[in-house]
Amino acid sequence: MIKCNIDKTQLILYLYGELDGNEKTALEKHLQECPECRAEADDYRQILDRLSKMTVVEPSNVVSIGLPYRRTKAMTYLTYGAIAASFIMLAVLTYLKLPARPYGRSGGPTTAVPTSANKTDTNMTVSISVDKELYAWDSGISDEIDSLKESAKTIVNDLNPAPASRRWVKTNPLASLDDSLDKIDTDIKTISTETD
Amino acid sequence: MINQISEAADDALLKEYQADSKTEVLEQLLLRYRTRLFNFIYRLTRNHALSEDLLQELSLKVIKNIKRFRPERAASFRQWLYQIAVNLCRDNARRKKPINSMELEQIATQTQDNRMEIEELIAGLPKEQKEVVLLKVYSGLTFREIAETLKCPLNTAIGRMHYALKTLREKAQIYDKV
Lengths: 196, 178
Hints:
Chain A is mainly α. Chain A has seven helices and two strands, in the order H-H-H-H-E-E-H-H-H. Chain B has one domain (7-177): Rna Polymerase Sigma Factor, Chain: A. By secondary structure, chain B is an all-alpha fold. In chain B, helix 3 (34-45) crosses helix 4 (48-65) and helix 3 runs antiparallel to helix 8 (127-138).
């Protein structure tokens, strides 16, 4: 029997369908004539079949991208970020409540601004609420508060965990948080300019 | 077995995300590869918890860099994902984190037939061969793409696969006789 001198790596490419037309035809012809290569190709085919049937292992549901459930650096930054954001919002809203002249309306509005940042192992919340009277207050500042409220919503959305089936990817909370803080900074400057 | 993924659909989602930055689109794009990437990483690290951490790290890298990713100038999105996965696994191996070899035994109790055998056989392959085999199983990349991903010549990538299959065949034959 004549020893087969074919490049055996061609068999690999053939089994994966990566030979071009001419090479494929030539190899198929060779396989018909060479029992050694045919046996080798059959063996490899069996191995590839076993490989394709390997058990599929699933990551657990707590694997979260962008919103890690485990205590990570990102989580720490989020915690500090959430606390910092609530302090900034508290400061801004307290500032709005402080002016000696209540922007022209007798009695002035009363404002309750409970702001908090609570953290547990799996969840964090940032909340902000303003008395309805403030919205009835025709000063123009309520628009700015609406804007702040939207910023708070953004933070809350980023900090709240998604449903288990959709936890893998969320927006980068740090980026969103930074954006929110930038927005709040801008709002503070705007309000300061208006009230000066 | 994991179904094949359409690269054209990847490109469409990628363009949509790069145009509108919709989180849902990026989520959809990454979720398509979640199980495949996890299995790839898991078979290289042999540690479930570590693989979850690396998968998470991988996604953060994608989120951070995806705006700058240009498929027309480089690899496909899929190839890019696996390149990150390979690099993370290699970095991890360099850090020499402990390997929990018990985990594969746990799988053995959950599976039937000869599946554990192939798991064991792959685990025994040299690292370079294992990378090629697992990339072929879980990424569906061509050998040319695998060579680019692993930064080695094409013939080297094919050669590693050939040696791996030879080893697996020989050991499987011994195993089958026992």
